[in-house]
Each structure stands twice: as structure tokens, then as C-alpha cells.
Amino acid sequence: MKASTFLAGLIAGSVTAAVTVLFSTPQTGSEIRSSVKSASTDMKHKLNDVKGKISELKNSITHMTKEAKELVPEAVNGIKGSIEQWQISTESNRLKLEKELSAIQNSLAELEQTIAAQQK
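Now predict its structure.
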């Protein structure tokens, strides 16, 4: 929701509430004027508070966006570096496993040939 839409809704609600109070109150005109003045002053303070909070929220979002732009690439680079180190450290094991698998495949092939020769 946009801040301008929120503020427009807040103002429209405030005006509606003020009009409703004016027509439904048993107070005198001077009492109503006094109430309206205090209510409008309160609304102004509340609107200023809302504006301040919206400004703080915008600043927080901007700050978080800047931090994310800085931290995410660093984290990605760190993860890439860790993966590369892991690949380097496991390279010797990978080669050993490939040799052992090749030896097992050769043994199986020889065993199949031996079994085939014995069955003839």
C-alpha cells in the first residue's frame, strides 16, 4: 500500500468521524468547536507521527537494501570459495574411487569371461 493512499484514507476517516461526532453530540456550539480544535490538533500530531514512522520505515528499507547488496555477494563468493576448496580437498579421493571402480569393473568383466568359458 502506498503511503499517499494510506494517508488519504486516514484523513477521510478522520473527517467522517468528525462529522459524525458533530451531528450526534448533545454539546453546545462552543464545546463542539473546542472539541473539534483539540481533535484536529490530535489528528495533526498523529499524522506527523505516522509520517515520521513511514519515513523511518523507508530509511530502514533503504538501509537493509544497501546491506543486502553488500553482504549477499560476499556470502555468495564465500560459498563459492568453500565449494572450490571442498572440490580440491576431495579430488584425490575422487580419483581413488574412480580407480577402484575401474578395477571392480575390470574384475567383473574377467569374472564374466571366466564363467562364460567354464559353461562352454
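The helical segments are 3-24, 29-119.
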